[in-house]
Design a protein that fits this description.
By secondary structure, this protein is α/β, with parallel strands linked by helices. It has 13 helices and 17 strands. The radius of gyration is 23 Å and the shape is elongated.
Length: 396
């Protein structure tokens, strides 16, 4: 996949109408619709401010939630209000996506002004990448800028389809993702250490397969550990297990050996009698988890070994927590790995989703080189998959 794409800085936008795809899929309070976390809106500001300062008229768009059609609960009106406060200028809200109101407001929009289209998923053609919808959206503008990294793994009308009808470039958010994550995969500073956690082996298969070709060390933690342990003849008690993937895990261990990739699995495990925040933690050997116990976190020996591998790395990619970090008694492994990343001189990249949440919650976010803004997108990126919302952009 080519990670070298044109950005907003490579084209002339003065006096032009720019369709800007943002990720405004923000969490809201159910009852009032109040935005509970505006991080994604804040993340879009540098690209928006740049375009406005260059004399572009900005037509922003995004999806929000999974509406089945037009639904006031999923309206982007609260986003327009918050964006307006952050920018210190009015954000004109359209009542539709490509209907008469959006068309009239887009036509009247002047350089230096910004408007927001209604939720793109109010249009049934959005998720189907309907060419008619993509063409209608493109018809509002003269240039397309994609800056919603969290959505580039989906070929939707507003993320990929519009690029068939307009010159398409990336905003600053996507440019940073491509530069840092793309660089780490295409030409990493070595040794490259990949830390993979989270619940299931099945959700990380593509990532493991791809990383076996490029990483020097792969560290496995979290719930996916126990399928590996069982595959290697260990006993896992009532721990999370995917019996269908035992052969795959054996293959991966053999493949790692064959390729000279160091594959590190936990040596000791913090387990408990039940999945609860109040369960008493017990430390056991990972290969011998008692029948009535479940693994909940990595133990101190494992923490020391994993931290050691991170210390001398050139690049570290981390995706997925090491244990049930939502429960304080079982958050130590994830915290220790986050601290090891904070302390190393390596380039540190945290894939989106749970690992990003863990790093933020544990207070290490500002010590990472890069925290990806996309959960599913960063996973598919790490799998080496072509992302439709990136491949559609013009090559630099």
């Amino acid at each position: 996949m080519n990670y070298n794409k044109k950005t907003v800085k490579d084209i002339e936008v003065k006096g032009k109408k720019v369709l800007l795809r943002c990720d405004f899929n923000v969490p809201q309070e159910k009852a009032t619709g109040a935005i509970t976390d505006d991080k994604r809106i804040v993340a879009a500001l540098p690209t928006i401010q740049y375009l406005l300062s260059q004399g572009a008229a900005v037509i922003a768009c995004s999806h929000l939630g999974k509406p089945k059609g037009p639904d006031p609960v999923f309206s982007l009106t609260p986003v327009a209000k918050r964006l307006s406060e952050l920018l210190g200028q009015p954000v004109e809200m359209a009542a539709d996506v490509v209907g008469p109101d959006a068309q009239a407001k887009a036509a009247a929009l002047q350089p230096g002004q910004i408007m927001l289209l209604e939720n793109t998923r109010f249009e049934p053609g959005e998720t189907k990448n309907d060419p008619a919808l993509a063409k209608a959206m493109a018809g509002l503008a003269e240039v397309y800028v994609s800056d919603a990294f969290g959505s580039v793994h989906r070929a939707h009308a507003s993320t990929a389809g519009v690029a068939d009808y307009l010159p398409a470039v990336s905003g600053f958010l996507i440019a940073k993702e491509l530069e840092i994550m793309g660089g780490a995969l295409a030409n990493p500073k070595r040794p490259l250490v990949a830390i993979l956690g989270g619940a299931k082996v099945s959700s990380k298969i593509g990532v493991i397969n791809h990383l076996l070709d490029i990483a020097d060390t792969i560290i496995v933690g979290g719930g996916m550990t126990y399928t590996f342990i069982k595959a290697m003849g260990g006993s896992v008690g009532t721990s999370l297990l995917e019996p269908d993937w035992l052969d795959y895990c054996r293959d991966m261990v053999a493949k790692a050996k064959e390729k000279g990739v160091q594959l590190l699995l936990p040596e000791d495990t913090v387990c408990a009698a039940e999945f609860s925040a109040d369960a008493a933690p017990e430390l056991v050997d990972t290969m011998a988890i008692p029948d009535n116990r479940m693994g909940m976190d990595i133990g101190p020996k494992t923490v020391a070994r994993f931290s050691d591998a991170v210390k001398d790395a050139g690049t570290v990619i981390w995706n997925g927590p090491m244990g049930v970090f939502e429960f304080p008694a079982f958050a130590e492994g994830t915290r220790a790995v986050a601290k090891a990343l904070a302390d190393t001189n390596a380039i540190t990249i945290v894939g989106g989703g749970d690992s990003a949440a863990a790093v933020a919650q544990l207070g290490f976010a500002d010590q990472m080189t890069h925290i990806s803004t996309g959960g599913g997108a960063s996973l598919e990126f790490l799998e080496g998959k072509a992302l439709p919302g990136v491949t559609c952009l013009m090559d630099a």
